[in-house]
Amino acid sequence: EVQLVESGGGLVQPGGSLRLSCTASGFTFGNYDMTWVRQAPGKGAEWVSAIDSGSRVPAYADSVQGRFTISRDNAKNTLYLQMNSLKMGDAAVYYCRTTLGEGTIRGQGTQVSVSS
Fold first, then answer.
1. How far, in whole angstroms, is CA 13 from its chain's centroid?
2. What is the Cα 12 distance to its own chain's centre?
3. Which of 11-20, 50-59, 78-87, 95-104 is least confident?
4. How far apart are alpha carbons 34 and 70 in whole angstroms?
5. Distance from C-alpha of 36 to C-alpha of 94, rounded to nearest angstrom
């Protein structure tokens, strides 16, 4: 079964850090580009960051550039998102996503809350 499982979310104060993980199974993880997206209550999905299969070309939304770092460990079938200097506006459910031959798949998400 093709599956993505996110973890690592939680409640953090403004300025704090979190590291999200996304563990993949059921497909050859190292062959596929991966993406992080987020969705805040009442808003549409927002693209956050992406990384190619070989970790050569990470890309970031302007809103997170310089604060977030995407990475992957193909040997562990895991995608990461290191989030530093978190702001109230970063609060959302974060999803990892990829597109396989049969379509786009997404995990169940992990909640990130930012509050003082």
1. 19
2. 17
3. 50-59
4. 10
5. 7
